[in-house]
Design a protein that fits this description.
151 residues, 5% strand, 77% helix, rod-shaped, 2 strands
Length: 151
């Protein structure tokens, strides 16, 4: 744009300034509207990404509950079976059941600890934050900084 915002009119005896550019209030209103649109877009993007994740979680929640009940039942039955096998190995001792429960309990604790470690590591790598939204916001920050430096 090659327009001059202020022109001095010298045709008459008195000089006066004619304003050919947008008013300060109008510029501020446009900036406010652009910022409002910018924020609304980012909030909507965040909401839609969060709704996608929640819908996936809802679909799997019922299946996960049924799986937990069946797996817990299987776990208890298999644990009792393993304890019985270990107890038979120590049948000559009066404490054969104690040995069976302790040995199986320690084995399950070690396996559970390893699985818990791997699960925590996966959660840390994946994270719960909406990655796409954060990436766009970081790009917006860089863009805003570059625009601010140009002004």
């Amino acid at each position: 744009m090659n327009r001059r915002p202020f022109v001095v009119n010298r045709d008459s005896d008195t000089e006066h300034v004619e304003n050919h550019g947008p008013s300060f209030g109008r510029v501020m209103a446009e900036i406010r509207d652009e910022i409002k649109d910018f924020v609304q877009t980012r909030v909507q993007m965040f909401k839609s990404e969060l709704q996608e994740k929640i819908s996936v979680w809802k679909a799997g929640a019922g299946l996960a509950a049924a799986a937990v009940v069946l797996l817990a039942t299987a776990y208890l039955l298999l644990t009792i079976s393993v304890v019985c096998l270990v107890a038979v190995a120590f049948w000559a001792s009066v404490y054969h059941w104690v040995f069976g429960f302790v040995i199986v309990g320690v084995a399950w604790a070690l396996i559970g600890g390893m699985l818990g470690y791997f699960a925590i590591r996966e959660f840390r790598e994946q994270g719960l934050a909406p990655k796409r939204t954060l990436e766009v916001l970081k790009e917006d920050k860089v863009w805003l900084e570059s625009e601010a430096n140009q002004v």
